[in-house]
Specification:
heterodimer; A: mainly alpha; 30 helices; about 0% strand; B: mainly beta; five-stranded mixed β-sheet; about 45% strand; globular
Chain lengths: ~625, ~375
């Protein structure tokens, strides 16, 4: 048959709107499509679960306590929302969360609590009861009705209680029926006795497992005898309960709707047939229950295979299946981490370096980093990956988009706390460049101070000086006047500060100090050579004052500076083409300076030589 | 500590503010507003801690904040203030200043007024970092170093001080009805007199040491010359703006940036600070002399011993107390208000006995029995 090249048919997936993340898993002949957890509404859980890692002591319970709140919120939203599609979306999310909790709790029971035979069943009973809350709802409904014993769901509730091993509650319910049928009182009494005598293993007690087993077998025989004697033959409901108590598989299977899941079936069957089941035997029963429960038409879902793998105590298979079924790393990363902390995972050394736990955590955290607001959480995860966490963090933290200064400050704080000085410098440089581009020189300086970036500080000072040369005044005086110790960050910055100080002194007419400062700027080589001409020009008015300000020595030094400047200029500019006007101005300036210096020198010598009368 | 309620809200909270209660009624604070940041879609929300218990929350804790309504907000909410009982003003990272109105009957929010690009660079948006209001006047500051004065219900801006600062202005507060105080990222506290037409501050104060950026500022409710600031290094500084240009006292408060500092509005012997390091501190003075100890000058390292002395009435004139020079008798008590270390606490507000704060851990904490 030839293959026809056609466009594949487009299948619209209901309840999935644009922008949501879908995951899928191939099954034989089917494809499971579901919403993944990479959505804002499920985000609350990330926050709370992330505190799991530091508190390893009892992370499982913290997960259990924190998850319900989020689940409730989701359920509330699912119920309250009016739009059907949105309701379905949230409903899907809720079911995924429920599935996750189911798996998590089972892992706790099997791997972490690692209960031995006897208590194993008790834990499994707890597990099933935790995840089958509709019984309580129905029971409440029945009890709140006028005549509970005549409610149509009454027997369903009683049977459900028995299936879950909640015999006390079953007995209480039966009492109500018994009062309605005084004629059958003897029968009800018998049933009540049977139910009350069912032995439950007490792990803390003195009874050994063998003793318990013997006791249980006696009870089981008694129930069987009742059945054979047809003691409950007249009442089909009580007969049914008796059959359940004896562990009749067919009866159990008839109540698939009440059991609703194969694992409930499994636990019930174990309760009434093999209460002393050992952990190693679990998977035989699990497999057979699964096969029995599902009819030939329905196929196991991914959840089922995960649970089965758990019953087989195959941790790696569980992790693998979860990774495939759930489209993000959240659950798997946490589960693996938990198991790793309990030393249950043999560290596979993966080719990409570290062990499985770290790999999964790194994957998860990297995913978090790409989220616009969960990057702060990811930092914590990276902290807990001893081998590669820091490297990953260093690479990722620079990619966080910095829209506001406040965000940049938070990122910087994270880097500084971990001594990532390279990243600090690079982030500060980005912010400083941005500030410079927007002409916020103060901000730019503040960023370079934080990064202790002398080179950048020099750049900023150059900008200031250029501005000054161009306009004749300083911009941003509030900054320059108040540099403080930051001045020492770079030479150019120091010069800027001191130069401004000179201007201030001049403005206050403190000429002597001003002149001293000016001289020191040149002689101490703080001023860049390019600026010397400007400084000398600034000295001109001081030289021209009536009063002698520069002493003879100082004047000599000034002259020396001028000559030095001239000689360097001559050597550098020899041969360069400069416009005639510039040269003229320069020449004039120099001549004026020479004249002023000479005159000052003369006056200074005279003044110093004069003896005060 | 048991009276703290935590509520997880799936959004990082950048600001939280109590709705003002009228002084005549002895009402407790019951409604607060929050703003979020760093989300794709940020929002402002109004919450109630209903003492009217009508919301029928059987399972939830009493005092668990209930969401009343919320509204989309363009950009991060960098600051939020109540203009009056129904309106809030927000400062956005897009440079916009917006007034939202909360309609109590229908529990909806609508945009009442907006100045879209109030703060800007020539070619880009500049985040508006702080807003303060004294109805109907609104003053905002931003990363562009501008101070802008608006009037609610008037279209344009009333006054702009361009290039008021060469660095980012982080926060602003009123000193008097016509004077404002700004703090910037080179560690300066600037006083501006809005009656003057000049574009330069009337006073500049700064720390004499390193130019550590200052992030928050608050004024003592009764003594208008006393101002507290917090900065990048987590130091709490108390200044007297009449005297000198350096702070009066410095205290090591936090190990990271201090985001907000608040004097308690009716009981100013109490001060609250919150920080990037995830802690919220309650500072309480109990000094023998009448002035709070953090006004007694000098450098205190963090917590000191508890004092059995009750705080005094505090009406004595500060000048006298300062001149009397008895600065060694003060005791400062500091307590952590949050049960455990969280991610950064970005904002706090306190009114009466109620305190609300928001964190980067997507949680809001409400404490209804603050010991003041």
């Amino acid at each position: 048959m030839e293959e026809v090249d056609v466009e594949p048919a487009v299948t619209n997936i209901p309840a999935a709107s644009s922008g949501t993340h879908l995951g899928f898993a191939w099954g034989p002949g089917d494809i499971l499509v579901y919403e993944t957890l990479y959505k804002a509404s499920g985000k609350c859980r990330y926050q709370r679960i992330h505190t799991l890692l530091p508190s390893v002591r009892d992370p499982a319970t913290s997960m259990r306590t924190k998850n319900p709140t989020c689940m409730e919120e989701l359920q509330q939203v699912a119920v309250s929302t009016k739009v059907a599609e949105v309701a379905m979306q949230y409903g899907n999310q809720v079911s995924i969360l429920l599935a996750i909790e189911l798996i998590w709790n089972l892992c706790e029971v099997l791997f972490i609590d690692a209960a031995p035979a006897g208590s194993l069943l008790l834990h499994l009973l707890d597990w099933v009861r935790l995840h089958k809350a509709d019984v309580d709802e129905k029971a409440r409904e029945v009890l709140q009705s006028e005549s509970p014993a005549e409610h149509r769901d009454y027997w369903d509730v009683v049977v459900s209680y028995v299936l879950q091993g909640r015999l006390e509650e079953a007995r209480q319910m039966l009492v109500k029926q018994a009062t309605l049928q005084p004629a059958a009182r003897k029968m009800y009494k018998q049933m009540d006795t049977l139910l009350s005598k069912m032995p439950f293993y007490n792990p803390g007690g003195t009874q050994t497992l063998t003793e318990f087993d013997v006791k249980w077998r006696h009870w089981h025989e008694e129930v069987d005898r009742c059945l054979q004697d047809n003691s409950f033959a007249s009442n089909k409901h009580l007969e049914l309960i008796c059959k359940i108590l004896v562990g009749d598989e067919d009866t159990l299977l008839e109540h698939k709707d009440l059991l609703s899941t194969w694992y409930h079936f499994l636990v019930t069957r174990l309760l009434f047939c093999h209460p002393t089941v050992k952990p190693t035997e679990l998977h035989y029963y699990a497999q057979s229950c699964l096969t029995m429960f599902l009819d030939s038409r329905s196929v196991p879902e991914p959840l089922d295979s995960i649970l089965l793998a758990a019953f087989e105590f195959d941790i790696h298979q569980v992790i693998k299946d979860c990774s495939i079924a759930l489209n993000n790393w959240w659950f798997v990363a946490h589960l693996t981490d938990l198991l790793d902390h309990c030393k249950l995972l043999q560290s596979h050394n993966l080719h990409f370096g570290s062990n499985l736990r770290e790999f999964l955590l790194l994957e998860y955290a990297s995913g978090l980093f790409t989220h616009h607001s969960l990057w702060q959480l990811a930092v914590d995860y990276f902290d807990h990956c001893p081998e590669f966490g820091r490297v990953y963090l260093e690479l990722q933290i620079e990619r966080v988009p910095l829209d506001t200064e406040r965000k940049a400050l938070k990122v910087l704080r994270i880097c500084e706390q971990r001594q990532m000085s390279e990243q600090v410098r690079s982030i500060c440089k980005i912010m400083a460049m941005r500030a410079l581009r927007n002409n916020r020189l103060g901000s730019a300086l503040s960023w370079s101070i934080r990064a202790k970036d002398a080179a950048f500080a020099t750049l900023i000072s150059e900008r200031f000086l250029q501005d000054y040369c161009a306009r004749g005044t300083f911009s941003d005086l509030d900054l320059i006047d108040n540099l403080g110790p930051a001045m020492l960050l770079s030479d150019r910055l120091t010069f800027l500060g001191k130069y401004r100080e000179f201007h201030k002194l001049y403005g206050e007419k403190r000429f002597r100090e001003a002149s001293k400062l000016l001289l020191s700027l040149m002689t101490a080589k703080i001023a860049p050579r390019s600026f010397w001409m400007t400084l000398l020009t600034d000295a001109l008015p001081l030289l021209e004052q009536k009063e002698v300000i520069f002493s003879a020595d100082q004047t000599h030094e000034l002259m020396f500076c001028l000559e030095e400047l001239m000689s360097s200029l001559n050597t550098t500019t020899a041969g360069t083409d400069r416009p005639m006007q510039d040269e003229d101005i320069e020449v004039t300036k120099v001549e004026l300076l020479r004249l002023a210096l000479a005159r000052n020198l003369a006056m200074a010598i005279v003044k110093e030589g004069t003896v005060e009368a | 500590m048991e009276s703290i309620n935590a509520k997880y809200v799936s959004q990082k909270i950048s600001k939280s503010r109590w709705r003002p209660v009228s002084h005549s009624s002895l009402q407790q604070a019951d409604i607060f507003a929050t703003g979020s940041w760093d989300n794709e879609d940020n929002k402002i929300s109004f919450w109630s801690i209903g003492s009217h218990g009508s919301s029928g929350v059987e399972d939830g804790f009493e005092g668990d904040p209930q969401l009343l309504c919320e509204h989309k907000h363009d950009g991060d909410v960098l600051d939020l203030q109540f203009l009056d009982q129904d309106r809030i003003v927000t400062a956005s990272s897009t440079g916009a200043v917006t007034i939202f109105r909360h309609h109590q009957n229908s529990q909806t929010i609508s945009v009442s007024q907006q100045w879209a690009r109030a703060h800007r660079y020539p070619s880009d948006n500049a985040p508006c970092t702080g807003v303060v209001c004294s109805s109907p006047e609104i003053v905002t500051v931003g990363e562009d170093g501008r101070i802008i004065v608006f009037r609610a219900d008037q279209e344009g801006v009333i006054r702009v001080i361009d290039n008021a600062d060469s660095s980012t202005i982080h926060a602003v507060t009123y000193l008097r009805t016509t004077e404002i105080l700004t703090v910037n990222s080179i560690g300066q506290l600037k006083l501006w007199d809005l009656r003057q037409q000049s574009n330069s501050p009337s006073q500049i104060l700064s720390l004499s040491g390193d130019r550590v950026p200052l992030h928050c500022v608050d004024r003592h409710p009764n003594q208008q010359h006393i101002v507290a600031t917090g900065g990048q290094d987590g130091m709490l500084c108390v200044w007297d703006v009449r005297q000198g240009s350096t702070p009066f006292s410095l205290m090591e408060a936090h190990s990271a940036e201090m985001w907000e500092v608040h004097f308690h509005p009716t009981n100013p012997d109490h001060l609250f600070t919150c920080s990037e390091d995830g802690s919220l501190l309650h500072w309480e003075t109990s000094s023998q002399s009448d002035i709070p100890s953090f006004l007694q000058g000098g450098r205190n390292s963090s917590m000191t011993s508890r004092s059995a002395m009750a705080p005094a009435g505090g009406n004595q004139s500060l000048i006298n107390a300062w001149l009397s020079g008895d600065s060694s008798k003060g005791r400062l008590e500091t307590t952590h208000m949050l049960p455990s270390q969280t991610l950064s606490v970005n904002s706090l507000d306190v009114l009466g006995q109620c305190l609300v704060c928001g964190t980067d851990g997507e949680a809001i904490f409400v404490n209804r029995q603050v010991p003041v």
